[in-house]
Design goal:
heterodimer, A: 499 residues, mainly alpha, two-stranded antiparallel ribbon, 73% helix, B: 176 residues, 2 domains, two-stranded antiparallel sheet, 5 helices, 60% helix
Chain lengths: 499, 176
């Protein structure tokens, strides 16, 4: 399955000044987006996506991957400097990054964040290549029933993991699937839920929903909060020494492994990986008592882990066509928009593109290292942008992005509608990520289900008699039922303990 | 009882039922496949109603069933400890009986709605200049010169980057 000529061609493609420029630009935008409050990878990517339509698919995707990695780093910067992570993935960085900055070692803290992020990102890219290629080769045996099962598995994992309430996760997922059914029925060609509006004949573009529920909803959340400017103290620009970095390498390597593994599980994002890596680093550390008071290991671990989730999330995305997180869902959506078919076939149909993404990711880690270290003294300036201008600017970009999708003002109004829906969802603790994943996977799920039933002449047992499909579906159902069973068993135990 | 869960469950139940009812207009089967375009939406509607019932029942019993976590307890997100000086200030002011934060939110939504309606009437640049100025003001910047400058800079940056550099078509005025 590995083609040397394709690898060489991909390397040459990535090393062109054009691609390198957009990669560096993506990393730079990502760093700024990560520093800004509330802008996560999914928002950043969905906002730039409509403007990449004229680019080569590989270049556009590499730019987005660069943005995603840069954003993970930027989230850590804010966590260390102002005790408020710019992105959720930087939450664990607070514990030791902020105390370090308070001790006058902010330059060192940012340096460690940068090096750990780059190493985590780079290692996860290598592991991505090692795992994704054989997994895709295995997945080539899949046909309609297996694809249906894989789609359900992806949704079930995302809906049931890391949500405050499993029913809310399920409902958000199902509404995502319901939105997919709007438009033209893929089999009969008849309109479905279009209510006579020609704008709905092609369905609702998932970018419209994404920009609404991520970007506009975030603008609404921010505008409701008081207008408070982040207080950034003057900080030392002294970077960590090579000796300090060398001492942290084992922590970074271990945390990158954790981040990679966690990232491969759909629904488990950078913040979960960061907390696990932080706990493990404390367990392995010779100085666990320093954790929480400015431990360099405590800072390196979450940063290496949350950046490594990017490579991890790319494994199911590339090999199976299942996105593992909100940002991965937007990457998947972009691939579909570019006419690519994410999934195992992409390794045989578009090997140059796949290897270009691997090289792009690896070079992105290098770009982050250079940019991060060079820009460290100036990153705090981004935090000084006053909130009224920031949220107005984000809203302006979101509407511009909506106009770029189809050019229809109808879509701009839909973006606002979904923004309000996204705001309500956040206030009521309905997670937006499962809805977005359902939007991306919904078409595949419906068409695979119907195609499988055509294959079997309407016999539903096709999903039970094919071992791979049956196993994946069983795991999907168990992963969804597990939290409920855990709750019931826990309550029964509590009751018997009381008696 | 978790009232928020019960009410949101009831709303979702009604929406699920509505989806089931509307799906009745879609042909149930076609020549190409037995399921037809109606089956999938109805399956989703039924599952929405089922999940909503779960949310209502657990909400009424005061139970919140959290999702599973990768890594078990190690992976559970912990709320970062925030020191007093980093805590967000609480706003107690009201505008027309509505908390000031909510008033800002409602005004922002209304301004954005008006923006989407006037874009093709007065064109991108005038609509953006006015709307962005109002948004900046609502968001907390009340110095007139800065409000105007902010609006001009944001509009100019967006227009230059997207309309001129990327060659994107932005709405033109139909009024003039």
């Amino acid at each position: 399955m590995i083609e040397v000529s394709a690898i060489l061609e991909a390397l040459l493609n990535v090393l062109t000044p054009y691609t390198l420029f957009f990669l560096v630009l993506g990393v730079l935008i990502g760093i700024v987006a990560g520093i800004l409050p509330g802008i996560n990878g999914a928002i950043g990517i969905s906002l730039i996506l409509p403007f990449t339509f004229g680019m080569e698919p590989a270049t556009a995707l590499i730019m987005m991957l660069g943005l995603w990695g840069g954003q993970n780093f930027g989230g850590g910067v804010t966590a260390a400097l102002v005790h408020a992570p710019g992105a959720a993935s930087g939450a664990a960085t607070l514990f030791d990054g902020y105390p370090m900055a308070q001790k006058g070692q902010a330059g060192k803290a940012l340096g460690i964040i940068c090096v750990s992020s780059s190493i985590g990102w780079f290692l996860s890219t290598i592991m991505l290549a090692v795992i994704a290629i054989p997994l895709a080769a295995f997945a080539l045996r899949f046909s309609a029933p297996e694809y249906f099962a894989v789609g359900i598995f992806g949704l079930s994992m995302v809906a049931s993991m890391a949500t405050k309430n499993i029913f809310k996760g399920a409902i958000a997922t199902l509404f995502g699937l319901a939105i997919v059914t709007i438009g033209t029925d893929p089999f009969s060609g008849l309109p479905r839920f279009t209510f006579g509006r020609f704008e709905l004949m092609d369905g609702i573009n998932f970018l419209v929903v994404m920009i609404g529920v991520f970007a506009i909803a975030e603008v609404l959340v921010q505008v409701q909060k008081p207008n408070v400017q982040a207080k950034v103290k003057k900080f030392s620009r002294e970077l960590p020494s090579w000796r300090e970095i060398r001492a942290l390498l084992p922590t970074m390597f271990r945390s990158a492994g954790i981040g990679m593994l966690v990232g491969t599980a759909p629904g488990a994002g950078g913040s979960i990986a960061a907390f696990i890596a932080y706990n493990e680093a404390k367990r392995f550390s010779r100085k666990p008592e320093e954790f929480g008071y400015g431990s360099q290991e405590g800072l390196a671990a979450p940063e290496a882990a949350n950046n490594a989730t990017e490579g991890g999330a790319m494994v199911p995305l590339l090999a199976l066509g299942i996105p593992g997180s909100g940002a991965a869902a937007v990457i998947l959506a972009s691939m579909i928009l570019y006419g690519l078919r994410p999934g195992p076939q992409i390794f045989t149909e578009q090997p140059v593109l796949v290897y270009s993404l691997f090289f792009g990711l690896a070079l992105g880690a290098v770009a982050l290292l250079i940019l991060g270290l060079l820009l460290t003294p100036y990153l705090a300036l981004v935090m000084r942008i006053p909130k009224p201008y920031l949220i107005t600017g984000v809203a302006g970009i979101a509407f511009m992005a909506a106009m770029a999708i189809t050019g229809l003002l109808f879509d701009v109004r839909l973006v606002l509608l979904f923004g309000v829906v996204g705001y309500i969802m956040r206030k009521l603790d309905f997670p937006p990520a499962p809805m977005i994943l359902a939007l991306v996977l919904g078409f595949m799920i419906e068409t695979s289900l119907r195609r499988a039933l055509i294959m079997s002449d309407g016999d539903w047992s096709i999903f039970m008699t094919r071992p791979i499909a049956a196993t994946i579906l069983a795991v999907a159902i168990l992963s969804f039922l597990y939290p409920m069973l855990r709750e019931i068993v826990g309550r029964l135990r509590q009751r018997s303990a009381k008696q | 009882m978790l009232l928020k869960n019960v009410i949101s469950g009831l709303v979702c139940l009604v929406l699920g039922a509505l989806l089931w009812w509307i799906a009745g207009d879609v042909p149930s089967f076609t020549a190409t496949d037995e399921l037809g375009g109606r089956f999938f939406p109805r399956l989703i509607a039924a599952m929405i109603m089922l999940a909503s019932a779960g949310l209502i029942i657990t909400g009424a019993l005061g139970i919140e069933i959290a999702g599973g976590q990768v890594g078990g307890k190690k992976g559970q997100a912990q709320a970062p400890q925030v020191s007093k000086e980093d805590e967000e200030p609480v706003e107690t002011a009201h505008v027309l009986g509505v908390p000031v934060g909510t008033a800002r939110l409602i005004s922002f939504v209304l301004v954005m709605l008006v923006y989407t309606l006037i874009l093709d009437v007065i064109g991108y640049i005038p609509a953006s200049l006015v709307t962005f100025a109002v948004m900046i003001w609502i968001a907390g910047e009340h110095r007139p010169v800065r409000v105007i400058l902010g609006s001009v800079v944001i509009t100019a940056l967006l227009y230059t980057l997207f309309a001129i550099v990327f060659g994107m078509n932005v709405p033109e005025a139909s009024l003039f």
